[in-house]
Amino acid sequence: MGDFLLVTIQVDMHDRLATTLQDDLTQRIVKAKAKGVLIDISSLEVVDSFIGRMLGNIAAMSRVLDAQTVVVGMRPAVAITLVELGLSLPGVRTALNVERGMDLLRAAIAGDHGAPGERLVHGHPQG
Amino acid sequence: MESLPPGLVELVARHEASILSEWMTIQTKSPTTRADLITEADLREESRRFLALVRQAMTSGAGDIHASAWSEAREFLAGLSASRARHGFSPSETLTFVFSLKQPIFNVVRRDMRANADAFADSVWAVNDFVDALAIYTSEVYQKGREDVIRRQQQEMLELSTPVVTLWDGVLALPLIGTLDSARTQVVMESLLEKIVETGASIAIIDITGVPTVDTLVAQHLLKTVAAARLMGADCIISGIRPQIAQTIVHLGVELADVTTKATLADAFVVALARTGSSISRPTRKA
């Protein structure tokens, strides 16, 4: 049974950092056999098409690795910007906060595997 | 006019009191003075103050009313324009107050400069010039005042007409009334998303019964709002779709792919309750 991974994105995410994040994340998903990824963007006040695309990419990569992604903590201004940019992130689930996000992941995973029980891991795979 | 003829400036200063009394006589005889809206005492005070400010500005010699020497006179006119409008004066009645200052000054100039045609012509022209400019300034201030009122009312209407109501635990309703243009959509999106954060709602019912027409632009705006709410973790149900609108949507080929739509708010409410794990039951009646 896999764990959930929590990724907290803060401001000033530029190209190289984003690539590093994506590398890190995909490796961790595999290592931890994670079934769910929570991306917390509650500290992002401003978003551009780059970050929008990055979120979409992370979700797609996770899906390929059989993990569900939920983006949580989006601020209203950020949501409006993404929509105006035409990036409504299809296929990416969203929730208001981490708790709701975990409920969503549990429901999605239970739907897939019918098995409860997981641990929330902050980027450090355990065991 | 660059600078005022010094003779004129000295003349006005010397005869300020008699200019004022002649001006009052002219004004009280004219119907545009609106004796019903302003008392003679108040009018006299206003005229006295304005004439004093004009005379003060004239002593600088500057003929351009936008120069700093005329700033107090301009401020006075701005205040006058606003207060007259508040008391119900029409714009032309307010402007007539400014224009009517010409005649008493012309009279003084005529009496004094009878012998010198050139000085007379120069002075008359100078007075004409600055009084006209002051009247134009007054008119512009009035216009701007009206535009500010309109803009403020538009803003209020925008805010009033997009309330977001909490229908039930975790269920919001957004009854839209009137047309949905891009400015309004912005306001709608912001209010809805802020309310979602505030209440932690997971469902928003957007009721468009009050939206008269739905064209591709309006549909786009609606879909944007739905997408934005979804990014915040809330699903939207669109209700209040009139038969006409349903036809239009299909004819326009608008894609409402994964948006739930219901004919009435009541239907949408039932769906929302089911999705949030509640249901309505009627108490059974004892036979």
Provide a brief overview of the structure.
Chain A is an alpha/beta fold and 127 residues long.
Overview of the molecule:
The complex is a heterodimer of chains A (127) and B (287). The model of chain A is unreliable at 114-119 and 123-127 (pLDDT under 50). Chain A has 127 residues and is α/β, with parallel strands linked by helices. Chain A has helices at 15-32, 49-64, 76-84, 98-113, and strands at 4-8, 36-40, 68-72, 93-95, 120-121. Chain A has one domain: Transcription Regulator spoIIAA, CATH 3.30.750. In chain A, β2, α2 (49-64) and β3 form a beta-alpha-beta unit. The termini of chain A are close together. Chain A is built from four helices and five strands; from the N terminus they run βαβαβαβαβ. Chain A has a five-stranded parallel β-sheet, sandwiched between helices. With 287 residues, chain B is of the alpha/beta class. Chain B has two domains: 6-157, Histidine kinase N-terminal domain (Globin-like), CATH 1.10.490.70; 165-275, STAS domain (Transcription Regulator spoIIAA), CATH 3.30.750.24. Chain B is built from eleven helices and five strands; from the N terminus they run αααααααββαβαβαβα. Chain B has helices at residues 6-14, 16-29, 40-58, 71-86, 91-99, 102-112, 117-160, 182-199, 216-231, 243-251, 265-275; strands spanning 165-168, 171-177, 203-210, 235-239, 260-261. Chain B has a five-stranded mixed β-sheet with strand order 1-2-3-4-5, with helices on both faces. In chain B, β2 (171-177), α8 and β3 form a beta-alpha-beta unit. In chain B, α5 runs antiparallel to α7. The radius of gyration of chain B is 33 Å and the shape is rod-shaped. The termini of chain B are far apart. The relative contact order of chain B is 0.08. Classes of the chains: A alpha/beta (127), B alpha/beta (287).
